[in-house]
Design brief:
The protein is built from 25 helices and 23 strands. The chain has about 800 residues and is an alpha+beta fold.
Length: about 800
C-alpha cells in the first residue's frame, strides 16, 4: 500500500512539473535556512563541551556588593587566589591561572612576525582542560621556565610539517628577545572554545621576567590573572559560595577594614564576593565579562531561530496554497477514488505521502544548498561551521529529522484534511466551490507578506542605524589617521625618532601618541570625590594629540610642552567630566582632588568637547587627558594627506624599519577601527537582509499559486467579460485588485510589529536614529511592487485566454 502511495506521489510530481518545482524550491530554501540555523545554534550551545571535566570546571569572578558601586563584575583575580582556593576548600582539586598577553613579536628565520594569542598559564592546564597534545608530554610541558607550547597551526606556520619538539622559538618579552624551547604542540583548538591561545608560556616566566607581575605575586590588592578551579566529582559550587565571605575576610580582611575606615562602605563583611561561574555558562552569559573572547547573547540564537521558523512556515504555506490552486484539477480524482471505495484516511495518507515526498526531495536539495552557502554564512556570522557537524551529533540528526517531519506534515496538512473531504458526486460533476479554501489561502498569503514586510522593515531600520553611527560626528576625525602600535618598544623614544625622521615629508601632517587607541582598548582609573568613588577614562597623550585628532577645545588651553607643570600636574577633561562632578568652566585653573601617588591634585587647564571614545552603544563617560610620563605611549597616531594614501603608508613602513629592527610595522586606520566596533550589528543586519529576501521570494511563489486559483475560479467570468468588450488592462486590474488589498492588510499588520521590534533593538544604543515612517512606507511599497509583478504574469495570461475555451462547456 505504501509503495503505491509513493508511486502515485512521484507520478503527480512529474505530471505537474511547474508546481512541483515551485514547491520543492520554496521548501528547499526554507530547509536550507533551517539547516544553517541548526548549525549556528548547535555551535552556540556546545561551547566548551569538549572538555572531559567540563561539568566540574568553574571560573572565578568578583561580584561587587556596594550599592551604586562604580565597579562591575570582573574576572581578574589576585595572583594568590588559586593556591588559596586549593588550600582552604577540600572540594577544589586543582586550579589554573591564565594571563592573556596579547600580541608579541617572534623572530624566526631572520624575519620578524607579529603573533597574537600569547597566554601565560600554570603547568596543570592540561590536567584540568582537554587540550590534547599532538607532540610532547602534557604533564611536564610547562613545568620548566623557558619552555613553550604552541598550537598545531603555529607549528606549521614557523616549522612547516616538521615535528618542532626541542626547537627554539625566539620571543620578544619585556623589551628583549629570549629563546624558548618548544616542549609541546597542541591539536587545533576547537572553534567553540571560550579559552583561546596560540602560544602558551609558563606563568613562572611572567613572574621571573615581568616586574608588573612579580611585584604582586603575593598581593591580594591587585588583580592580574583569570582563575579556573576544578571541583571534585559531586561537589556543589553553591557550598563554596556560602563559605566565600569567610574565605575573603581571612585573606583580605585588612584591606576591607581600611576601605570601611575610609568610608567606602559601612556594612559588615566583604564589599565584594568571589563567585564561581560554570564553564558551560561562560559563552552565553553577557552579564559577566569574557576573557579570550566576548560572550555571545543567546538572544541572537532566538532571533535566528525565529527567522528560520518564519521562512520555513512561509514555504509550508506555499505548499498549501499551491495544493489548493490545483484542487480543482484533483477534484475528479478524489471523487473517482471514493466511488471506487477509497476511505478518507487513505486519501489523507496519499496527500501526506506526496507532501513528505516533496519534503524529502527538498531536504536533500536544502542540505546541498546549505553546503554551498556555508562559507558565506560563516563570513556573516563569524563562525567556522561545517556541514559535517550535522552527521556527527545524534541530537542534531534527530532535530533535522524533526524539521523534515514538521515540514512535511504541516505542508500536507491542509490538502490532506481539506481535499480528502470532497463529496464524490460533486467532485465528478465539478460542482465544488472553493470559497472557504480561497479565504484560507488568502490568510496564508497575508501572513507570508506580513512576515516578509516585517523582515524588510527590520533590515531598513538596522541599515539606517548603522548608517547613522558610521556617519555621526564623534567629536574627533579618524579619517586619514594611521594607528601604529609600538608593541613593546619604548613608546616615547619610538615616537620622537619617528617624528624626526618624517618631519620633512609634506604628506605627513601630524604625529602624536597615546596610551590607548579608542577602538582597541580603554584605561580607567578610580578616585574619591566628595565621599564617593568615581571613575574616569584616562588618556596619557602628547601635546599635539587634540590637534592631530581634530578635537575641539570648549574652553581653556591645550598642553604646552614648554611648561614643566603640564608634563606632570596638568589635565584636560571633557564636558561630561565637569557635568558629572557638578563643575562648570570656572573650574579651569583650579586643582582637582585626585591622588594617584604619581599625580596629586592636578590642575584643570582645559575642557575638550565630548568625543565618543567607545561604541555608540554607550554614552560619553568622564575622561581625563594628561602628559605624565608615568604611563607609557603604546600607540602612535599619524595624520596623513588624503592624496596618495597608499604611498604615504609605504613611506611610514620604510621609516619604521629605519628606526627599529625589533618590531615589525603594523597599522590600522582609526576610522576603520571605530567602524569595526559594530561588526556584530553589521553581521546581523546582513543576515536579516538576506532573510527578508528569502522570505519575499518564497512568499511570491505562494502568491503565484493564489493567482492561479483566482484565474481558475473566474475563468468563465473573464470569458464573459471579454465577450462583452472588456479590455486586457481592465481584466488585469480586476484580478490584481484583490491582491493589492491583501498586501495592504499585510502592511497594516506588519508595521506596528516591526516598529516595536526596531525600537527594542535601538534601545541597545545610547545614540540612535528614529525609524521614521519612511522605512515602513518603503518596506510596504517594495512588497506591493514585488507582489504586483508576480501577479501580473497570471493576470495577463488569464486576460489573453480565448473566451471560446472558457465558455465551450456552457
Amino acid at each position: 500500500m505504501l509503495k503505491n502511495y509513493f508511486k502515485i506521489a512521484f507520478r503527480n510530481l512529474f505530471k505537474n512539473k511547474l508546481y512541483s518545482l515551485i514547491n520543492i524550491a520554496g521548501l528547499s530554501l526554507g530547509i536550507t535556512f533551517s539547516v544553517l540555523v541548526i548549525l549556528f545554534i548547535q555551535d552556540e550551545m556546545t561551547y566548551d563541551r569538549f572538555h572531559k571535566n567540563g561539568e566540574d570546571i568553574y571560573r572565578l569572578y568578583r561580584q561587587p556588593l556596594i550599592e551604586g558601586s562604580a565597579y562591575n563584575p570582573d574576572i581578574y583575580m589576585p595572583m594568590p587566589t588559586a593556591q588559596a582556593m586549593e588550600d582552604d576548600f577540600p572540594e577544589v582539586e586543582e586550579s589554573v591561572r591564565f594571563i592573556p598577553f596579547g600580541t608579541n613579536v617572534i623572530r624566526s628565520g631572520g624575519s620578524l612576525f607579529e603573533q597574537d594569542g600569547f597566554v601565560f598559564t600554570d603547568p596543570e592546564v592540561f590536567d584540568v582542560f582537554t587540550f590534547p597534545l599532538k607532540y610532547g608530554n602534557s604533564s611536564s610541558a610547562l613545568v620548566t621556565p623557558g619552555s613553550v607550547v604552541i598550537t598545531d597551526e603555529i607549528a606549521h606556520k614557523y616549522f612547516g610539517d616538521l615535528n618542532p619538539l626541542g626547537e627554539t622559538l625566539t620571543i620578544r618579552l619585556n623589551g628583549e628577545f629570549s629563546d624558548f624551547t618548544i616542549t609541546g604542540v597542541t591539536e587545533s583548538i576547537p572553534a567553540n572554545s571560550t579559552i583561546r591561545f596560540n602560544v602558551l608560556l609558563p606563568i613562572q616566566d611572567a613572574l621571573n621576567r615581568l616586574e608588573s607581575y612579580s611585584s604582586v605575586a603575593d598581593s591580594w590588592n591587585s588583580t592580574r590573572n583569570i582563575t579556573y578551579v576544578k571541583l571534585q566529582k559531586g561537589a556543589h559550587h553553591e557550598n563554596l559560595h556560602q563559605q566565600m565571605p569567610n574565605f575573603m575576610m581571612t585573606h583580605m580582611g585588612s584591606i576591607f577594614n581600611q576601605m570601611r575606615e575610609e568610608g567606602r562602605y559601612s556594612f559588615e563583611g566583604p564589599p565584594i564576593l568571589y563567585k564561581l561561574q560554570p564553564l558551560y555558562d561562560i559563552h552565553l552569559n553577557t552579564e559577566i565579562p569574557g576573557a579570550f573572547s566576548e560572550p555571545s547573547s543567546p538572544v541572537y540564537s532566538y532571533i535566528l531561530g525565529g527567522i528560520a521558523l518564519a521562512v520555513l512556515l512561509i514555504a509550508c504555506f506555499n505548499f498549501m496554497i499551491l495544493s489548493i490552486g490545483r484542487s480543482a484539477k484533483r477534484a475528479k480524482e478524489v471523487g473517482l477514488r471514493k466511488v471506487m471505495g477509497a476511505f478518507r484516511n487513505q486519501l489523507m495518507t496519499q496527500f501526506w505521502a506526496e507532501a513528505l515526498t516533496v519534503t524529502l526531495i527538498a531536504l536533500i536539495a536544502g542540505i546541498l544548498f546549505a553546503e554551498f552557502l556555508i562559507p558565506v554564512f560563516n563570513e556573516f556570522s563569524g563562525k567556522s561551521l561545517s556541514l559535517s557537524l550535522l552527521f556527527e551529533n545524534s541530537r542534531v540528526l534527530l532535530l533535522l529529522f524533526g524539521v523534515f517531519l514538521f515540514t512535511g506534515l504541516i505542508a500536507g496538512s491542509y490538502p490532506a484534511l481539506y481535499l480528502s473531504g470532497f463529496r464524490p458526486i460533486e467532485s465528478i460533476k465539478e460542482k465544488l466551490t472553493f470559497g472557504g479554501a480561497n479565504n484560507f489561502s488568502k490568510s496564508l498569503i497575508m501572513t507570508q507578506f506580513a512576515i516578509s514586510i516585517f523582515l524588510v522593515a527590520a533590515t531598513l531600520g538596522m541599515a539606517k542605524q548603522l548608517h547613522f553611527i558610521q556617519n555621526k560626528n564623534l567629536g574627533f576625525t579618524g579619517e586619514q589617521v594611521v594607528v601604529i602600535p609600538v608593541n613593546g618598544l619604548d613608546g616615547d623614544r619610538a615616537m620622537n625618532l619617528y617624528r624626526d625622521a618624517l618631519s620633512r615629508e609634506t604628506d605627513i601632517i601630524d604625529i602624536t601618541g597615546a596610551n590607548v587607541s579608542f577602538a582597541t582598548g580603554l584605561w580607567r582609573r578610580g578616585y574619591r570625590y566628595e565621599g564617593e568613588i568615581k571613575e574616569s577614562a584616562v588618556f596619557r597623550v602628547e601635546p599635539n594629540y587634540i590637534q592631530t585628532l581634530k578635537m575641539d577645545l570648549a574652553a581653556g588651553r591645550n598642553f604646552d610642552p614648554n611648561l614643566a607643570s603640564d608634563s606632570t600636574q596638568s589635565i584636560i577633561v571633557n564636558e561630561t567630566f565637569l557635568e558629572q562632578h557638578g563643575l562648570d568652566l570656572s573650574a579651569i585653573g583650579q586643582s582637582f582632588p585626585i591622588d594617584w601617588g604619581w599625580m596629586t591634585n592636578p590642575v584643570i587647564i582645559g575642557v575638550v568637547k565630548d568625543f565618543n571614545y567607545q561604541s555608540l552603544e554607550h554614552t560619553v563617560q568622564p575622561a581625563i587627558m594628561y602628559m605624565n610620563p608615568r604611563d607609557p605611549i603604546l600607540n602612535i597616531f599619524v595624520r596623513i594627506s588624503s592624496e596618495k594614501m597608499s604611498a604615504s603608508v609605504a613611506k611610514l613602513r620604510e621609516t619604521w624599519a629605519s628606526i627599529t629592527s625589533e618590531v615589525p610595522f603594523s597599522y590600522s586606520f582609526l576610522d576603520e577601527d571605530m567602524h569595526n566596533l559594530y561588526r556584530v550589528e553589521q553581521r546581523w543586519a546582513t543576515i536579516v537582509s538576506y532573510s527578508s529576501f528569502f522570505a519575499i521570494f518564497v512568499a511570491c511563489l505562494g502568491l503565484f499559486g493564489l493567482a492561479g486559483i483566482i484565474a481558475i475560479q473566474r475563468r468563465k467570468e473573464i470569458g464573459i467579460r471579454k465577450v462583452l468588450g472588456a479590455s486586457i488592462k481592465g481584466i488585469v486590474l480586476l484580478l490584481s485588485r484583490d491582491f493589492v488589498k491583501l498586501i495592504l492588510i499585510s502592511i497594516v499588520v506588519a508595521t506596528p510589529l516591526s516598529w516595536l521590534a526596531i525600537h527594542h533593538w535601538l534601545e541597545n544604543f545610547a545614540y540612535r536614529t528614529e525609524p521614521g515612517i519612511g522605512i515602513f512606507l518603503l518596506a510596504g511599497s517594495l512588497a506591493l511592487l514585488v507582489a504586483s509583478l508576480t501577479v501580473s504574469w497570471q493576470s495577463v495570461k488569464a486576460a489573453l485566454t480565448n473566451p471560446v475555451n472558457s465558455l465551450r462547456n456552457e
